[in-house]
Amino acid sequence: MFETACIPMLINKATLRREMDDEESYRVADVTLLLEPFSRELAAELGEHIAAHLFEDDEMRPEVEKVNLSLNAPDQRVIVASAPDAPALAELKSVTIGALAVTRKAKEDHEWYRATIEARIDLREREIREFLFHHFGELRVFTFYPEQTPLFGGHGATLTNADTGEVLAEWNGGAGEATH
Q: How far apart are CA 72 and CA 5, in angstroms?
């Protein structure tokens, strides 16, 4: 998903629920990761088309208040640490990334984008449940690795209007072409 290592984020929200596979019922957490500021560089790691919708050159586009994306990223292995030079606190396996919302924020004369990333974390391992409990709401650094390499290149994404849900553009990842 992101190529940059040690991205500062916090687990802002978590909803626990049960899922069922072929053999058993197990717990998962639907979490919201908060990332701010969301830079042009990080947007470009998701795709240059995504960055172009949010930024013109290196400046935030004045017409963008909120953008919702449905990412088609492969499941991720996520390493979480308290600081870039600290040992790992947890290795989260098979993390499913869903939606990403990017919202303009402002304070006095400064503006930035805030990104919220929806993710699903498997809680079958006790260490993962304890990690989530002890580190919820605290700033940590996250490094993402794809569980498997995509067959045909990068990630796909769908850009939707935040108010109406209308699909504005879709990317299939790696092909370099957007559908409007």
A: 20
For residue range 104-151, list pLDDT tens digits in order. Answer: 999 999 999 999 999 999 999 999 999 999 999 999 999 999 997 555
- Peptide bond preceding 37: is omega within 30 degrees of 0, i.e. cis? yes
49 in Cβ contact with 175 (< 8 Å): no
Closest CA to 105 of 70, 66, 139, 69: 66
The 10s digit of each residue's pLDDT in 11-62 is 999 999 999 988 899 999 999 999 999 999 999 999 999 999 999 988 999 9
Helix (H, G, I), strand (E, B) or coil at 18: strand
Please state, in angstroms and as integers, the Cα–Cα distance from residue 70 to each residue in 21, 103, 131, 156, 170, following that order.
Answer: 24, 15, 27, 9, 9
Contact call for residues 97 and 73 (beta carbons, < 8 A): yes
User: Are the CB atoms for 173 and 157 separated by under 8 Å?
Assistant: yes
Length reported for the chain:
180
